[in-house]
Amino acid sequence: MNVVELDRATITIGGRDILVDTSFAIRRGEFIGVLGPNGAGKTTLMRAILGLLPPSAGTLRVFGRVPLRGDPNIGYLPQVRTVVSDLRVRGFDFVASSVHGDRWGLPLLTRADRAMIAKTLDAVGAGDLATRPLSEMSGGERQRLLLAQTLLGEPQLLLLDEPLISLDYRYQEAVIDLVRSFARERNITVLFSAHELNQLIGTLDRVLYLGNGRAALGTVDEVATAPVLSQLYGTDIQVVHADGHIFVLSRGRDVERADHAHDDGPGHGHHHGHHHA
Amino acid sequence: MRTTTAPGTVITTAITMLEYDFMRNAFAAAGVAAVVSGLVGYFLVLRGQTFAGHALSHIGFAGATGAVLIGLASVWGLVGMTVVAGIGMGILGERISGRDVAIGVVLSLALGFGLLFLHYYTAFATQATALLFGNVLAVDQKMIVTLAGLGVVTLGGLAAIMRPLIFASLQPELAEAKGVPLRFVSIAFLTIVALAVAESAQIVGILLVFALMVGPPATAQALTKGLWGGMLLSAALALAEAWAGIAIAYHTDWPVSFCIAILSALGYFLTRGSFLPRLVKRR
Questions:
Q1: CB-CB: which of B48, B170, B177 is closest to A97?
Q2: What domains are defined for chain A?
Q3: Would you list which residues of chain B are within 8 Å, Cβ to Cβ, of chain A?
Q4: How far is A74 from chain B (nearest CA, A)?
Q5: pLDDT at A17 (0 to 100)
Q6: Which residues have a Cβ under 8 Å from the Cβ of B159 and sit 6 or more positions away?
Q7: Which domains does chain B have, with CATH numbers?
Q8: What is the ipTM of this complex?
Q9: Which of B204, B236, B261 has the alpha carbon at shortest distance from B38?
């Protein structure tokens, strides 16, 4: 069964075409790495799958139907995560705010709700964060909490928008491992957007490259090639294989790394040191 | 002069204090307004919108004085103007956040209009002082009923939107994706804030609304990490500060609003200092 299916879909935001006349299908249980240059529409695609942005032409089907806003079968980790850093709210209350958060009335939780939250926090090793205030958590701990939150209520599809951004290398690996094992055990479909292909190579089933209004979905060997990526990036791309890693270069520069550095600012450049090892 | 030397004397003076009608009225009115302000203020601080509360109170001043000028009770001018402004700020939403200059200009314009309306009203000085700094000792039975009615509406509204409000405050991006109507929640909340500002202004005055709406919630958030605990402590602190403020004013003859403002600031700075939070954390 196809979990996400685009049939000649055109997705437009702010007068700009993100995807034009694009068709592809993502099967149940697949781990898909979503890559592409900044502004290629990784976030927009996820928002369309969430039902926040209907395609301007063609069809987009999620679980075989028109996407439903607020679908409890989808776990979502937004890229922009406004977390007030001095918020003295404990982890449990933070996560609990998303449980039935769209219903009116007082934020009362049933015993089953509480048990479900506690169980999910434990499953990702975030049980100890339940009683600690957000203001005292590290970036990695907050990310673990947010990941736990996307897994609440046993979703069938996870949309993780740049979950590795501004995380230490150590935590990046931990996040990937966590998502992989959780999703594999439960046959959950994952769309995992990232700036770099290499970290995900051992984990992903297929890769979805976006760029220039187009999309290419396939195995790494099929998609991460000079002709395909040149078209998506709209510039001459070389793909260099070295020691199990793949480098996407434009005129000798690593385009993925350049993107990432641009996003995070120069202070976070050290995250990528491991590639030189 | 009352000199309190023994515990018995304190209790006696407390009882004498409550023998006066105006004191009982003051405690009742301040109690209602404090609980409403403490609860609504908790979310105002949680959302980082304290400036909106400040803005609404200033805009309310023009409404209050305008109402007096045309022969209405000032409280209804205050309520009407703050609610309209609250809805307006909610509709503009993101577009006005961070536009300090524009808001500042609108605020002084509102205060200016308030002054103009007062200028044409004969009982200038008393009215102005009462509006700006509160006059809880002059509250009558009718005002208590009004405050209680407004309080029920305000807290009822807050209870109705509380779950999506918390979700939208803590995680706006996810809340939007999950189907929470952010714009509506924001408008509804600012309307509730407008009503709470109107309540609070009746007790401590327009200029000292922060004493009940921001001081107690900020203190409560420094001391708690659970949402329910924070909310309840915020309401309890506001109530305690309002009542203690009135009692201190009774004994010292200082203005009530000053006493409440002092207690509010004291609570805030004690918990913000490096000493007390560390002590609480260890416990």
A1: B170
A2: 2-73+155-276 (3.40.50.300), 84-153 (no CATH)
A3: 46, 48, 159-164, 166-168, 170-180, 221-222, 224-227, 230
A4: 9
A5: 87
A6: A105, A106
A7: 21-282 (1.10.3470.10)
A8: 0.85
A9: B236
